[in-house]
Amino acid sequence: MRAGARPILPQHRLPPETDMNRPIHTLATLRHIETLAGQAGMPLMDRAAGAIADRVEQRIVRGEPILALAGRGNNGGDALLAAARLAARGHRVDAWLPLGEPATDDARRAHAQALAAGVTLVVAPRTAPALALDGLFGIGLRRAPDAAACAAIDWLNGISGHRLALDVPSGLDAWSGQVTGCAVAATETLTFLADKPGLLTHDGPDQAGDVHLATLDIPPAWWPAADGACYQPDDDITHRLARKQNAHKGSFGCVAVLGGATGMTGAALLAARAALRTGAGKVRIGLLEPALAVDPLYPELMLDDAPAPSPTPMSRSWRSAPGSVSRRRPRNCCGTRCSAADRWCSTPTP
Fold first, then answer.
1. Residue 127 phi/psi, 5° resolution?
2. Which end of the chain has fewer beta carbons closer than 10 Å to its terminal beta carbon, N or C?
3. Percent of the chain at pLDDT above 90?
C-alpha cells in the first residue's frame, strides 16, 4: 500500500473473544488455566459435561441410543459426566470403557455419577448408537494408541451414527495435527477452552469434522496473550466492506501480485481475486508469461507483464510481492511507472 493510503480493512484486527479471531494457546497455558480453575473451585468438567449434553440434544431425538466411549483420564471423565447429564434428562445412555477403569480422581467421580444417574455400563456395545461420544484420549496424548484403543477407534469409525469427539478426536495430536497409528474420524468435535492448532492443520481438518468451541466461561483476565489465532470469516463478508458513498477504488490501497510461468497462472489469479474480495481498491498482476488479456471472472483486475530480471535493486513498487520477467518497463500496482534502474524482483516460491 502506498504511503498515505487508507487501510484496506480497518476492521480486520478483531478482539480475541470474537468468533472471527479465536485465540490459540499452548498446552502449558491451558494446563495453567485448569490449575487456576481448580484453585478457584470452578468445576470445568461439570461445565464441559453440560456443553456436551446440550450439543448432543441438538443432534438426536429423545429415545435414540447414545454411547459414551470413555478412556481412563479426564477426557473419559468428560464423557462419563456428560452421559450422567443426558441420562438425567431422560436419554438412553450406555458407557463403554474399553481401556479399563478411570485412573484420575475426577474421572472416578464422573464414573460414580454416571452409574448413579442410570447410565448402563457395557463390556461391549449392545447396538449401533445414533450418537457416540469419543472420550478415549484428550489433548495430552503423546504416543500412538495401543491395540485395544485402535480396536475401539476402528469400531467407532465404522458406525453410521454421529461421532462427537470431545476436545480432539482420539489419536490426533492436538498440537501438530498428526495421526500416528489410528485416530477417530469424527463428524463433529466440541473443543474446550480454546482452539487447538492440531484441529486446523495437517490431518486435523479431515479427522475433526465440524469444530465447535466451548469456552467454559473462563474469566478473560486469566488468559495471557495468545500464541496464535484461528481466523474464521463469515461466509458473506460484504457487510464488513461497507464504504462511504463518496469513495473510489483509489481510496482503498493497491496490491501487486507477480508470478505465473507458462501454464501456471492460476496461483497468481487466485491471489489477485482474493485481494479484490477482501477489499483492495486496485489489483495488478504481473505475469511471467502473459496468457490472458482479461480475467473473465474479475475484469477489474489489471494484467501486465512482470518486471524483467536485472542486477539492480528491485523496484520499490513490486518489492513486497513475488516477481519475475517482463518485456517492457512495468507499472506499479497503482499505475506509476517504475524507474528504468529498478526492475529486479525475487520470487519466494517453495
1. -140, 165
2. C
3. 53
Annotated binding site: 74-78, 134, 138-144, 167, 170
Contacts of 326 (CB under 8 A, 6+ apart): 286, 304, 305, 306, 307, 308, 343
**What is the rounded distance in angstroms from the CA atom of residue 131 to the CA atom of residue 133?**
7
Can you say which residues are annotated as belonging to the binding site for K(+)? Answer: 75, 134, 170
| SS3 sequence of 77-94 | HHHHHHHHHHHHCCCCEE
pTM value is 0.68
| CA of residue 52 relative to chain centroid, distance | 20
Q: How far is CA 319 from CA 75, 103, 242, 258, 281, in A?
A: 50, 58, 30, 10, 19
pLDDT: is 96 or 309 the higher one? 96
Residue 85 and residue 93 in contact, taking contact as beta carbons nearer than 8 Å: no
* Residues 284/256, Cβ–Cβ less than 8 Å: yes
For cell 449392545, the residue is 126
Could you give the domains of the chain?
A: 1-10+236-350 (no CATH), 21-231 (3.40.50.10260)
The DSSP bridge pattern shows strands 302-305 and 282-287 to be parallel
pLDDT digits (tens, 9 = 90+) for 204-233: 999 999 999 999 999 999 999 988 887 766
**Which one of 238-247, 250-259, 315-324 scores highest in mean pLDDT?**
250-259
Question: Cα angle vertex 51, ends 46, 56, to 5°?
Answer: 125
Strands 21-24 and 228-231: antiparallel
* Cβ-based neighbour number of residue 235 at 10 Å: 4
**Span 39-78, pLDDT tens digits:** 999 999 999 999 999 999 999 988 899 999 999 999 999 9
Distance between CA atoms of residues 11 and 9, nearest Å: 5
Q: Rounded CA gap, 70 and 78, in Å?
A: 8
Binding residue positions for (6S)-NADPHX: 74-78, 138-144, 167
Decide if 24 contacts 196 (C-beta within 8 A).
Answer: yes
One-letter amino acid of 107? A
- Amino acid, res. 297: L
Q: Which residue has the higher pLDDT, 192 or 268?
A: 192
Contact status, residue 119 vs residue 80, Cβ threshold 8 Å: yes
